[in-house]
Amino acid sequence: MKNILCLVLAGAAIVFAQAPKAGKVEVFPLDQVKAGMKATAWTVFEGSEVEAVPIEIIGLWKNAWGPKQDIILAKMFGKALRTGVAGGMSGSPVYIDGKLVGAVSLRISVFSPDAICGITPIDLMLEINQFDSSKPKDAKTPQSVAANQPVRVPENVLAGAMMQQIDTPLTFSGFHETTLQNFGAALQQMGVRPVMGGAGGANYETKPASDWKTSLQPGQPIVGVLVSGDMNISGLGTVTYNDGNKVLGFGHPFFNMGPLDMPMAKGEILTVLSSSFQPNKVGNTTEIVGALRQDRHSGIQGLLGEQAETIPVTLKVRNLGAKGGVAGEKDFRFNVFVNQKWTPFLMTMTLFNSISGLNEFSDETTYKLSGKVELDGLPTLDLSGMATVNDSPMPPAIGLASWWGDKFNRLFANTLENPKLKAVTATIDLIPERRAATVESAWIEKTEVDPGEEIALKVFVQPYRGERLSRTLKIKIPSGLSKGEHRVVLVDAETLNRAPFVAGASNRFIEFSQTVNLINQERQNTQLYAVITSMKPTVYLDDKSLTSLPSSVMNVLQAGRAPTRPMLTLLESYTEAAAIPFDYVVSGNYSLRFTVR
Asked: What is the pLDDT of residues 483-501, one digit of tens each?
């Protein structure tokens, strides 16, 4: 009866309470927080209007967030008894006697029937204003997927209970179930809960909306935007504090990336999914109103009215009919958050999503990509490739997306310079058959030749379940080729690309322009290459291939190289004589011997 009376009194206490507004606010001292105190949290259950939630303080959990970082334990009433402490409530401001005490940020594990939450003190969140550009060591990124581990509450506070950070619902709009199945596991390991959601229209604009000055009031949704446009990926939380310029939210890290430059947007809540296992707010991302600048242990900080840098991406997906004509096409436009670890992952995911959810998608589909990456102050990066079914267990759509994402990973992994991408465009053709071919045999016109002579060459490749293909071409014997036996080798792109790639990857201090050159020099896997070999060493150094080097020159080069800038040496040199195009993924090699008189 006493508990019921307390609940009624708590409910009565908030009837006349006014929703918090942006501006300076008085802080309730943490050392005055006592068990049994009544408080009020503000959050959104539907739309964008904040609602009051009665709270009763359980006690202070000392040093729970780290040395000298206490957490307030409390029990939520009102609608929270039905919804539980849901994902998306992170950052909901909590007031005692009209003074801000902190933000809802933690919850008891799924085994508790009570809506017990942990509150990050506002003092810890205000410390974010003092941080510089230092990077936390435990940032959650696609390459560092340490599981989000719950922490145990001391036995004298809550016996046997488990308190854990409220999962940040990462909302996907315009994404197919197949995409979440393939990429969702990595996101969950980072402590991010992928959920299907929506966006208030395809938002191609990255500039702050006209009403940014009055946006993101305390208790309203705050959204960190990773992708916006025809596809949208955004992290949903709640605003804790807004002084008219700086905004604080979440009460815990988003990805703990430290300083960042991410679009910050408003949101609207459709409903709160009640679940004893994983309650979540379900909502839409609306207009961008600023930029997130800090992602720290105790919350996120953003600046209203500022614009974050993004990469505009345009993808055209064409369905090719049986005769090669374009039977249909779809265009996708979106903007991607710029970050060393996240951008390659997002490029991979969005490209896969563009091709995996179409009616033309099938196991035997071949994907042909032609794309460009415009760079600030450097030549355009030209990318071409094809992916089809092969002996690998990896589906071709995943293979193409991984190949695409790897190019961006190589750009952003450069240790000397941060890449500046102006725009990305690509066209992906879907071909309704398996386009794979293997080198079968070859024939050379004659086996004794003179330097500088031009001779005929014929090559045969065998497509998958198709008629054998042949190509006839002329190759020229280099005039400086020494007398004796040599080889002409018909070789695929993967083999030729291997040595330059290893040489570039081995150099930890390769210049960014050299990385771009290396990618542009890569051979296409739809071509077969005729190369003439000689028994002289080749040195691969940064983005250069030095063929037929004398031993004296090699020794000088090796002596002048630091251990961190190695060079790769092969015993054989080759001269590329011809590139033979096929509309297939070509693999294999074939060698023919000839003698120079």
From this structure: 999 999 999 999 999 999 9
Of residues 217, 221, 117, the one with CA closest to residue 166: 117
Q: Is 43 exposed, middle or buried (0-12, 13-18, 19+ CB in 10 A)?
A: buried
CATH class for domain 311-431?
alpha beta
Q: Are strands 585-587 and 436-444 parallel, antiparallel or unpaired?
A: parallel
Which amino acid is located at 97 in the chain?
D
* Residue 278, helix vs strand vs coil: coil
Place of tokens 């053709």: 429
**Can you tell me the distance from the alpha carbon of 305 to that of 211, in angstroms, rounded to the nearest whole number?**
9
With a CB cutoff of 8 Å and minimum separation 6, the contacts of 457 are 442, 443, 444, 445, 472, 473, 474, 475, 488, 530, 578, 592
Average pLDDT over the chain reads 86
Question: Tokens in use for 258?
Answer: 């430290």
Torsion angles phi and psi, residue 551, rounded to 5: -60, -35
CA angle at 206 for the pair 201 and 211, rounded to the nearest 5°: 75
Say if strands 381-387 and 568-570 run parallel, antiparallel, or are unpaired.
unpaired
Strands 99-108 and 162-165, sheet pairing? antiparallel
Q: Which residues pair with 590 in a beta bridge?
A: 490
Query: Within 10 A of 75 (CB to CB), how many other CB atoms are there?
Result: 17
Residue 234 and residue 170 in contact, taking contact as beta carbons nearer than 8 Å: yes
Question: Is 489 in a helix, a strand, or coil?
Answer: strand
Rounded distance between C-alpha atoms, residue 48 and residue 225, angstroms: 18
Q: How far apart are CA 72 and CA 62, in angstroms?
A: 9
CA 252/CA 254 separation, integer angstroms = 7
Instruction: Round to whole Å and give the CA distance between 34 and 123.
Output: 17
**Full-model pTM:** 0.87
Tens digits of per-residue pLDDT, 153-188?
A: 343 344 345 678 887 878 888 888 888 888 877 777
Strand, helix or coil for residue 187? helix
* Lowest-pLDDT choice from 108-112, 314-318, 440-444: 108-112
**Helix H segments across 270-420?**
342-356, 396-412
Those residues with Cβ within 8 angstroms of residue 470's Cβ, 6 or more apart along the chain or in another chain:
458, 459, 460, 461
Residue ranges per domain, the chain? 1-308, 311-431, 436-596
CB 428 within 8 A of CB 367: yes
**Sheet-wide strand order for 527-534:** 448-449, 589-596, 484-492, 527-534, 573-581
Cβ-count burial of 359 within 10 angstroms (0-12 exposed, 13-18 middle, 19+ buried)? exposed
Q: Kindly state the DSSP code that residue 49 receives in the 8-state scheme.
A: -
For the CA atoms of the chain, what is the radius of gyration? 30
Better-predicted residue by pLDDT, 336 or 392 = 336
Contact 269, 281 (CB under 8 A): yes
Q: Say how many CA atoms lie within 13 Å of 306 toward its Cβ.
A: 18
What is the C-alpha to C-alpha distance for residues 382 and 127, in angstroms, rounded to an integer? 45
d(CA 345, CA 337): 11
